[in-house]
Amino acid sequence: MALDYSRAGDWILREDSFDPEHLGKCEAVMCLGNGYLGLRSAMEEKYLNETRDLLINGTFNQFDPSAVTELPNAADMTAIELTVNQERFTLEQGNIDFYSRELNIRKAELKREAVWISPKGEQFSLTFRRVVSLDRLHDFAIQVQITPLSNDAEIEIKSGIDGRVTNTGAQHFTEGDMRLYEGKHIQYVQKTTQSGITFALNTAHRFWTEDEELELSAQLHMEVRKIYGIYRTRVKKGETLKIEKYCNVYTTRDLELQGKTVKEMQAFSLEKLKEQKAFGYAKLAADTEAEWNRQVWERVPIKIEGNAYDDFAVHFAQYHMRLMVPAHDNRMNIGAKGLTGEGYRGHCFWDTEIFLLPYYAFTQPETARKLEEYRYLTLPGAHKKAADNGYQGAMFPWESAWMDDGEVTPEFQNADIVTGLLIKVWSGFIEQHITADVAFGVWQYASITGDQDFMDRYGYELILDTARFWASRLEEKNRQIHERVNEQGITEFTETVTKDGFLHICDVVGPDEYKEHKTDNAFTNYLAAWNIRKAIACCQLLKVEKPKLYQTLNEKLELEHWYQEWIQKVDRIFLPAPNEKGILPQDSTYLNLQEIDLSKYKAQDFVGGIFHDYNQTQINQLQVSKQADVLALFFLLEDLFPREVKTATWDYYSERTIHDSSLSLCTHAVLAADMRELEEAYRLFEKSTEIDLGPVMTTSDAGIHAASFGGIWQGAVYGFGGLRTLDGRLRIDPCLPDAWEKLTYEIIWQGQRLEVSVTRGNVRVKNLTKTKIVELKLCKKTVQLEKEVTAEL
Amino acid sequence: MALDYSRAGDWILREDSFDPEHLGKCEAVMCLGNGYLGLRSAMEEKYLNETRDLLINGTFNQFDPSAVTELPNAADMTAIELTVNQERFTLEQGNIDFYSRELNIRKAELKREAVWISPKGEQFSLTFRRVVSLDRLHDFAIQVQITPLSNDAEIEIKSGIDGRVTNTGAQHFTEGDMRLYEGKHIQYVQKTTQSGITFALNTAHRFWTEDEELELSAQLHMEVRKIYGIYRTRVKKGETLKIEKYCNVYTTRDLELQGKTVKEMQAFSLEKLKEQKAFGYAKLAADTEAEWNRQVWERVPIKIEGNAYDDFAVHFAQYHMRLMVPAHDNRMNIGAKGLTGEGYRGHCFWDTEIFLLPYYAFTQPETARKLEEYRYLTLPGAHKKAADNGYQGAMFPWESAWMDDGEVTPEFQNADIVTGLLIKVWSGFIEQHITADVAFGVWQYASITGDQDFMDRYGYELILDTARFWASRLEEKNRQIHERVNEQGITEFTETVTKDGFLHICDVVGPDEYKEHKTDNAFTNYLAAWNIRKAIACCQLLKVEKPKLYQTLNEKLELEHWYQEWIQKVDRIFLPAPNEKGILPQDSTYLNLQEIDLSKYKAQDFVGGIFHDYNQTQINQLQVSKQADVLALFFLLEDLFPREVKTATWDYYSERTIHDSSLSLCTHAVLAADMRELEEAYRLFEKSTEIDLGPVMTTSDAGIHAASFGGIWQGAVYGFGGLRTLDGRLRIDPCLPDAWEKLTYEIIWQGQRLEVSVTRGNVRVKNLTKTKIVELKLCKKTVQLEKEVTAEL
Question: Which of A168, A387, A722, B268 could form a disulfide with A733 if both were Cys (CB 3.0 to 4.6 A apart)?
Answer without folding.
Answer: A722
